[in-house]
Amino acid sequence: MQRNYLPRVPCVTTKNGIRAVKPELLPQIITKALDVSQSTLKDYQVESYADLVGMFLQLEEEYGLQPSEDGMGLSIDPKSKHSPKLAYAFRGWGLKNAPYTSGVVARCI
To answer: Using an 8 Å Cβ cutoff, are 63 and 83 in contact?
Structure first.
């Protein structure tokens, strides 16, 4: 059985003698352990319905994302200039999400 251990990371010792990870390295360590980009941790400030609709409109304009015909899903306009990038991102999202949806890994949120 293969075990995936987190890499050794630089620590600091606090005044109380507790060893802790340097705070500025935490995003790098988390994204490396999860095998995702550091931009994954970015907060996009979507705090309201209006913010969400604005984000969807921007994704539609830039990448061809659009609501499906039944309004319950999303689709990609294949004629959009950047639709291949969005399709690639969706495939990556699906691959990263598969262990959670299949029940192999539990979400800890």
So the answer is: yes
Which token pair is 61? 């304009």
Q: Which residues contact 52 (CB under 8 A, 6 or more apart)?
A: 46
Cβ neighbors of 29 (< 8 A, separation 6 or more) are 6, 7, 9, 21
**Considering only CA atoms, which of 37, 74, 43 is closest in space to residue 59?**
74
CB-based contacts of 14, cutoff 8 Å, min separation 6? 20
Residues 80-99 have pLDDT tens digits of: 999 999 999 989 888 888 88
Give the CA distances from residue 86 to residues 52, 60, 94, 101, in Å, rounded to whole numbers and listed in that order.
17, 10, 12, 21
Q: Could you tell me the CA-to-CA distances from 47 to 21, 38, 53, 65 in Å, in that order?
A: 30, 21, 11, 20
Instruction: With 0.70 as the threshold, say if the pTM is over it.
Output: no
What's the alpha-carbon Rg for the chain, to the nearest Å?
Answer: 19
Tokens of 53: 């609709």
Q: Region 49-58: what's the mean pLDDT? A: 93
